[in-house]
Amino acid sequence: MEKLGINAFQLLAQGVNFLILMFVLKKFLLKPLLALLEKRKASISEQIKAEEDLSKRIKDTERKDQAVLKQAKLKADEIIKQAQVLARKEAVEILAATRQESKKILARADMDAKLEFRKSQARLQTMVIKEAAVLANRALAEVLSKEDQKKITEVQIAKLVKGEEYV
What we know:
The protein is mostly helical. The chain has one domain. Helix content is 92%, strand content 0%. It is rod-shaped.
């Protein structure tokens, strides 16, 4: 080998140096580097798992939110329906009360109108009696004396007031 320019002792020393270098690099550089890479891999895998868990939680929360919203909507619809039924019921009651009140008002107005009619009738009757007395006095003034006129007039007025027939 010497002819080729290779020194066996030097080659052996370089081989031993290479093996020592490999041992030192493996022990002090490769193992810590592999341990660091394993820690990084574990950390990344934990982060991925945490992300997946978080994604599941978010999806579960969204499903729960949707269910709660759906339930709330159903409850709101139910409340609205109950309010509408109650409003209709109250409207019917108010309408019935209003009709009853209007009947009372009409009955009161009818009674007031009848009372007013009777009062007007009584006033008219009084006016007719007075006019009749005046006409009777004029007619009797030509035929009877003042005392006779007065007596007859008083008797006839008394009869008219009592409702007796006129003779």
